[in-house]
Design goal:
The chain is mainly alpha-helical. It is built from 13 helices and no strands.
Length: 307
């Protein structure tokens, strides 16, 4: 029952957020955002998405190699495009990642390691995103600038607490927790923090964050914003951070965060929603190569199954 509720909670939450925004702002920001999309913005978003997808695939291959389930970069790129498309079109926003983890694990002969490689790869990217977002918010004015000291102190407490637990928790023993902690420690050591892996992981993650931020700035310009990039940058990174919340293709949390952030910055909630809508469409179109990968794989499988 709880799994069913969790499955439906995400699309329901997305629908509720969008419904509230439509009630407060009307359909104008949504329709205006779609109408303003043009071919140059779509082409720019597709080019940036190609770069970020290659970087994500490289990061995944680095982590997978450290965990002992090697992954060719070319295969990783195709699988990552497929997973991005599935994440955008299926509820939850993570089913594409689960699919590529299981598929890679089966090909490598270890589904558990395949799934762990995907989980650690995504987690590493999100950690770098959080760090870069905090740095930008510290250095540049934003609606949350006054709250940063409290948030930073809380983050330090959490990190120190996690480190203390990691040092004092017993790793030996047959319990499930002990086995999980041993596996996590080995994964971190071999997959993420190894000298040959972590510089590439950090670099790839930083490029991905920069690419997503650039796409958001393009969306803001396409939606009609005339603000400087320096003023839009912290707002963009805040909205992108909100997209970590599971949803349907990013819809809901992205628009809600954009409405609040743009409104708090004095740029208008409607402008924020229009920008978020444009961003969502640009990202969806840029990930359409993933649909091509799915179709090609289906044709190959059908051809192999024919007598």
């Amino acid at each position: 029952m709880s799994r069913t509720l969790w499955t439906w909670a995400r699309p329901l939450g997305t629908a509720v957020v969008v419904a509230v925004l439509v009630r407060q702002l009307g359909t104008g920001p949504f329709l205006d955002g779609v109408r303003r999309i043009d071919r140059p913005s779509l082409a720019a978003a597709a080019g940036i998405a190609a770069l970020t997808t290659v970087c994500c695939a490289w990061r995944w291959s680095l982590v997978a190699r450290g965990l002992g389930v090697d992954l060719a970069l070319r295969t990783a790129i195709a699988a990552y495009y497929r997973s991005l498309f599935l994440n955008l079109t299926l509820p939850g926003g993570v089913l594409g990642d689960v699919h590529r983890g299981v598929r890679h694990g089966r090909d490598a002969g270890d589904v558990g390691r395949g799934l762990r490689a995907v989980a650690w790869e995504r987690s590493a990217g999100q950690v770098v995103q959080v760090v870069l977002t905090v740095l930008v918010l510290i250095l540049m004015p934003s609606p949350v600038h006054a709250s940063l000291p409290v948030a930073a102190a809380a983050a330090v407490v959490v990190v120190l607490g996690a480190g203390l637990v990691g040092r004092t928790w017993p790793y030996d023993g047959p319990s499930g927790w002990a086995r999980t902690l041993r596996a996590a420690r080995l994964d971190l050591r071999d997959g993420l923090l190894a000298r040959r892996a972590w510089p590439g992981i950090v670099l790839a993650s930083a490029v991905v964050v920069a690419g997503h931020t650039a796409t958001f700035l393009i969306a803001a310009r396409t939606a009609g914003s005339t603000e400087s990039a320096t003023r839009l940058l912290p707002l963009a990174m805040l909205v992108l951070l909100a997209m970590v919340i599971p949803s349907v293709g990013g819809w809901g949390p992205r628009e809600g965060a954009a409405a609040w952030v743009f409104g708090a910055a004095g740029l208008g909630a409607a402008q924020g929603v229009a920008t978020a809508v444009v961003y969502g469409v640009l990202v969806f179109v840029a990930c359409l190569p993933g649909a091509v990968v799915l179709v090609v794989a289906w044709f190959r499988r059908t051809r192999l199954e024919q007598p």
